[in-house]
Design a protein that fits this description.
The protein is of the alpha/beta class. It has helices at 3-11, 18-21, 39-48, 61-71, 89-96, 108-120, 132-141, 157-170, 182-191; strands at residues 23-28, 31-36, 79-83, 100-105, 126-129, 147-151, 174-178, 195-200, 206-212.
């Protein structure tokens, strides 16, 4: 068992399938990620155990695109929150750019992998298990935030509704990467009351910048 797998095995749940521990290190989006080698097998194993689809366990194009965008920015000392971090590529890029990072995900497995990915890239950051609907108050209390990141998180109506409630409460600029889902259009429509919007549209992934409107 290699050192990365051994470390994961110590931190993951006791019933973790073998496909969750069969991992490799990949360079993607300018950062190094610890990635399960056979995502389809992992999906099959988790489904057979009655668990949800492990969407977090793949380096999706939106997350990589967001990481590349964040890497261009000067974030020295900025307090940054990532929602639905998965493997945490954007958070790693932000930490490399000098940000103080809190990477969150609703999957406890994702939090373990995110912590390993941060360590692999030799950057410091905090990771936490957080569900937007259940832990929104705590995320607000941890602020103020200078930047909120999210990549491809609007694939269910529940996520769209939770994001529409939470993002205005965080009171920070939001950088959202999305593969042009209907959910993103619905969120942006709801967000216009609280944010000024700018979109850099791409064929596969669009970047949406949400800037809080001044009150009063």
């Amino acid at each position: 068992m290699n050192p990365v797998t051994a470390s994961l095995a110590e931190m993951l749940r006791d019933d973790a399938p073998a496909s969750l521990l069969d991992v490799s290190v990949r360079l993607a989006g300018g950062v190094y990620l610890v990635v399960p080698n056979d995502w389809e097998q992992l999906r099959h194993d988790e489904g057979g155990a009655g668990r949800g689809v492990p969407y977090w366990a793949r380096p999706w194009p939106s997350g990589l695109r967001l990481a590349e965008e964040v890497a261009k920015r000067s974030l020295q000392g900025a307090r940054m929150l990532e929602l639905g971090c998965g493997l945490a590529a954007p958070s790693i890029a932000a930490a490399k750019a000098g940000a103080e990072v809190l990477a969150t995900d609703g999957s406890e497995d994702a939090v373990v992998f995110a912590a390993h990915c941060l360590a692999l890239n030799e950057v410091e950051g905090e990771v936490a298990h957080a569900d937007w609907a259940a832990h929104g108050d705590q995320l607000v209390e941890r602020g103020p935030w200078d930047l909120v990141l999210a990549a491809d998180v609007l694939y269910t109506r529940q996520n769209v509704e939770a994001a529409a409630r939470l993002l205005p409460r965080l009171g920070a600029p939001v950088l959202l990467a999305d593969p042009n889902r209907t959910g993103a259009r619905n969120l942006l429509a709801a967000a216009r009351a609280s944010f000024a919007l700018h979109t850099d549209r791409g064929e596969e992934v669009s970047l949406h910048s949400l800037t809080p409107r001044r009150r009063g």
